[in-house]
Amino acid sequence: DNVDELSRMRADCNSSSINRRALLGRRERGDDDHTLIILLYSLIFFLSVFGNLLIIVVLTVNKRMRTVTNTFLLSLAVSDLMLVVFCMPFTLIPSILKDFIFGAIMCKIVTYLMGISVSISTFSLVAIAIERYSAICNPLKSRVWQTRSHAYRVIAATWLMAIIIMIPYPVVSHLDSFPRPDNTTAHQCRHKWPVAVAKQSWYVLLLLILFAIPGVVMSVAYGLISRELYRGIQFEMGHKKDSTDVKNGLTSTMSCGSDDGDGCYVNVQRPYSLEMSAMSASVKRPRADRPRSNTSEAKLEAKKRVIRMLVVIVVLFFLCWMPLYCINTWRAFDDNSAKKALSGTPIAFIHLLSYTSACVNPIIYCFMNTRFRKALLAMFSCCAGPCRHHRRRHRRGLRDNEEDVTAMGPSMSKFSYTTVSTMGTC
């Protein structure tokens, strides 16, 4: 009996030591996860704040940058700044402490501002996509209504719509208390819906108006823009080939009304008149051919870059927001299984992925724009001291890089549409 009792005691000691080691292991893994989450959240937070503040300053100070598209970009930067300021700290700190320490009033305010900032950011992305589509695919018609006053009205409407749509959030947000294992009381900011159907309908509505419909609109708009730019690339490549044939003295039969664009691209001349015109052109403009060729090549490369960038915009939108909206819908219909599968670190990383959109939007929409980069450098150089030389380079760079601005659409009304406008509507 003593031997059996001793063996049972040893087994209990071994099991307790194993449980203690497992508990310590889980705590260490939890601490490691918390450290990684804090580092990633801090990195995304500071990059987003710095990038969006920089955009706000540049677009506000530089009068030449106050175009229709940049007006929407300014609204997008403000909404993204609100997103990171009012969402990230109030998501990270309660997740780490397992306690919402900001009080009942802040629970309502924070959830309301979260919804408003996300809505405005999404609506701004849709407005930018529609504006770019109209400017590139319907340039003549868009000049009539694409003004800054119209942009101000659209932005005011998006802000008002976001404020109205998100009114249910402060109504259903409440601060609940729950006991901890160490006999202390913690708090949680939760949404209390009167019936389950209301909760499910709300999250399905958000899935539609903040993700599905904007995603489809952006995909269609940027897809049509990419098709238009691709047509422009084909047109310029065909025009370049025909120009080469004309320079070599080759004659060709032109078929007006072909399937590609306008049909008649080149006025082919007779060899004698071609030779005389070439001689006169060489006398009048001896250096015109090479810059024109370089400009044409630059335009083709710029349009190819813009097509790739538009694809990246759509992919990043779905990548950043799809997990969050899918999970919110899942939780609305089956909260228990969603909490078991996603509580803790997974949900923190999913929220971080959505906040990353506020970090990549400044990079995609502004810092990849040649004109914006030059305005940024000009502002810093002027603040530092002498900037006459840089201004000269700035003007020369704007002339050399008009294709970037034209293709990306920040100021379509100030430049000729060249190939893009000749290809007709999308």
UniProtKB/TrEMBL annotation:
Membrane topology: Multi-pass membrane protein
Entry keyword Amino-acid biosynthesis: no
Main localization of the protein described in the UniProt heading: membrane
Protein name, UniProt field: Gastrin/cholecystokinin type B receptor
One MF term in the entry's GO annotations: neuropeptide receptor activity
UniProt domain G-protein coupled receptors family 1 profile: residue ranges: 51-365
Sequence similarity: Belongs to the G-protein coupled receptor 1 family.
Lipoprotein is among the record's keywords: yes
Key words, A-Z: Cell membrane, Disulfide bond, G-protein coupled receptor, Glycoprotein, Lipoprotein, Membrane, Palmitate, Receptor, Transducer, Transmembrane, Transmembrane helix
Membrane-spanning segments: 36-61, 73-97, 109-130, 151-171, 202-225, 306-327, 347-367
Gene Ontology, cellular component aspect: plasma membrane
PROSITE patterns noted in UniProt: G_PROTEIN_RECEP_F1_1, G_PROTEIN_RECEP_F1_2
Pfam short name (any one): 7tm_1
Superkingdom field: Eukaryota
Compartments in which it is found: Cell membrane
The protein's role, per its UniProt record: Receptor for gastrin and cholecystokinin. The CCK-B receptors occur throughout the central nervous system where they modulate anxiety, analgesia, arousal, and neuroleptic activity. This receptor mediates its action by association with G proteins that activate a phosphatidylinositol-calcium second messenger system.
UniProt xrefs under PANTHER family: G-PROTEIN COUPLED RECEPTOR (PTHR24238), GASTRIN_CHOLECYSTOKININ TYPE B RECEPTOR (PTHR24238:SF79)
